[in-house]
Amino acid sequence: MTKLTRRNLMTAAAATGLAGVLGSRLALAADEPLGITLVIPSPVGDVGWGHALAAGLEPIKAAYGDKVKVTVLENIAEGPDADRIMNKTVADGNKFLVAGSFGYQNGALQIARRDPSVTVLHASGFQVAPNFSPFAAKYFQGTYLLGMAAAALSKTGKLGSVSAFAIPELITSINAFTLGAQAVKPDIEVSVVWVNSWFDPAKEQEAAKALIAQKCDVIFSNAQDTPSVISACEEAGVYAFNLNSSMKKYAPKTYLGCIATDWSPFFKASVDAHLAGTFKGANAFLGVADKVVEVVDWNPDIPADVMTKIKEIEVKIADGSFSPFTGPIAKADGSEAVVSGATMADPEIIAMNWHVKGVSTPLPK
């Protein structure tokens, strides 16, 4: 797997001339491998979102061998640079693009619209086209369970979350975390610090310390690509958990667990469909039942009776008989969000832009 950074890519452009790097849109020969490019805003690293996405492509390499060529472009900031770089990789003949960040949506969608022969998967978005599929994880299925565990271990009744951006995917994660905690302790409160970055170790650590200073004794690291929050919590003796991939080695004592994601089933099915000429864009919202989401590394400090309840709910989530977003649910302002007995449908969850009652931090405007 080739790894390129923005610096490497721009250096190549300067060395060969912009026209030469961008190339012309030439059709690939029938015997050439399928070019698959993953673009992410942070380093691949050994943990986090970028790591999970890159790992999700490994089974494709194993299945297809030299029939595919996978390239990872890391540290690509959202905005004009990302648009230029994604256009470059397609112009170079790569026909399968994984746009691994919410902010890549508009540029990636324009690529799909201009070239129907290209298949684009876009992380965390909502736009759909015949050759363009947004994909997101039902993290909320796991954060509900970890909310139950957090409430059982909390002594202060105050929980916290260091969160990247206020997009629906992360809002739903916080809301389900809160609801899971309230299922164990109804009066629990959750505070949120939005760092407005996918990768800022110093800011993330500062945010974690701020929540700890507010007496939050379990912290949810919500979409950080570094172990900064997890490490800060270990140092302070505070429980913490995160999304995407295990960070247990950074907090051997206070690691509460991880909502791990395995994107390989979705990526493999999408590549299969592309090669067969049957790919159809759709909103892929994937969870436990799809074998994309799984909670791992449960902390042994969780009381046995609570763990039993967690496992019972986990089975119900997997078979579809329970949803964290079944009413009654109230919004943070006290208004009714979901009536008793009703369950939010996936399109409603995907568009969620409000916090549940118990989240004390207002959403940024």
Key words describing this protein structure:
single chain; 365 residues; alpha/beta; seven-stranded parallel β-sheet; six-stranded mixed β-sheet; 12 helices; 15 strands; 39% helix; 20% strand; globular; disordered N terminus; signal; TAT_signal; BMP family ABC transporter substrate-binding protein; ABC-Purine-Binding
Average residue-wise pLDDT: 92
Share of residues in helices: 25-40%
Broad shape: globular
**Radius of gyration over C-alpha positions, nearest whole angstrom:** 21 Å
**Helix count from the secondary structure assignment:** 12
H/E element order: EHHEHEHEHEEHEHEHEHEEHEEHEEH
Oligomeric composition of the shown chains: single chain
Main β-sheet description: 7 strands, parallel
Describe how the helices and strands are arranged.
Blueprint (H helix, E strand, L loop, with lengths): L1 E4 H11 L1 H5 L11 E6 L8 H17 L3 E7 L5 H12 L4 E4 L5 H10 L4 E5 L8 E6 L1 H15 L4 E6 L4 H17 L4 E6 L6 H13 L4 E5 L5 H9 L2 E6 L10 E7 L2 H13 L7 E3 L6 E4 L7 H16 L9 E2 L5 E3 L7 H5 L15
Parallel strand pairs: 1-3, 2-3, 2-4, 4-5, 5-6, 6-12, 7-8, 7-9, 9-10, 10-11
Antiparallel strand pairs: 11-13, 14-15
Explain what this protein looks like in three dimensions.
This protein is α/β, with parallel strands linked by helices and 365 residues long. A 7-stranded parallel β-sheet has the order 1-3-2-4-5-6-12, with helices on both faces. Strand 9, helix 9 and strand 10 form a beta-alpha-beta unit. The radius of gyration is 21 Å and the shape is globular. The two termini are 40 Å apart. 45% of the residues are buried. This is BMP family ABC transporter substrate-binding protein. InterPro entries: ABC-Purine-Binding (IPR052910), Peripla_BP_I (IPR028082), PnrA-like (IPR003760), TAT_signal (IPR006311). Pfam families: Bmp. Keywords: Signal.
